[in-house]
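forwarding from the other thread:

> can someone predict this with zinc ion?

sure thing
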Amino acid sequence: MDDCIFCKIIKGDIPADVVYRDERFLAFLDIRPINRGHVLVIPLVHAERLTDLPDDLLAAELPLARRIASAVLEVTGATDFNLFNTNGVEAGQEVFHHHIHIIPRHAGDGLTFNLNPVSYNEGEASELAGRIGNVMTS
Ligand code: 5GP
Ligand code: ZN
């Protein structure tokens, strides 16, 4: 994708602080880190969302993210981390090349998801669970 900033990083047209590269994935520091050591893991092939990735690539991505997260924790001294993935504008996606955020966490670092949970009406949760389940098995 010519206008994709992450494809440009893959090609070396834009510099990045690379932490890992193999034949399928690239990992580099986020330019606007939530905490020091915030890493992005991306597939070398351009895919907009998680749902656009083939199963084998997706299956390889999580073990890699786990390995990188362990290295991030070792180097930053953080004990905890979040994996985060955005799919679409309403989910906060800004770069439309699938990526997983690895974010080391520290006590009092201020990151919150500001969750404001909604409530189910009587019977709504079981009905919704059933409908989703039906799609899964259809
Ligand atoms: P999103 O909101 O799409 O899940 O996250 C995109 C991330 O990419 C953001 O955290 C942003 O800081 C990072 N980012 C955007 N442009 C660049 C860039 O040119 N270089 C690097 N290293 N990170 C970038
Ligand atoms: Zn791309």
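The pocket of guanosine-5'-monophosphate (ligand 1) is lined by residues 5, 14, 16, 28-32, 40, 86, 92-95 (CB under 6 Å). thats all i got for now
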